[in-house]
User: Fold this.
Amino acid sequence: MPVADYEVTYILRPASRKPRPTSAQTPWPTASKARGGELIGELEKMGKRRLAYEIDDVREGYYVVMKFRSEPDGARNSSARCA
Assistant:
């Protein structure tokens, strides 16, 4: 299968005591590598922002943007694994 570049933005639930997400709290890079993908550049941690609408009584989250290269099946399987 052909390899393609992907970009995904995900939102982490804010931790009550830690001000920023750590690499251990960001599952996408690990799941992508496990499926044969590779990161392109660095994770872009956009910081804590207000959500467009409340989800499970949560109004804010940490936004993270990741760019990676993978086969289409690897990209799809990575997202299902982290959901």
Notes: The first strand starts at residue 4 and ends at 12. Residues 72-82 form the longest helix (11 residues). Residues 79-83 have pLDDT under 50 and may be disordered.
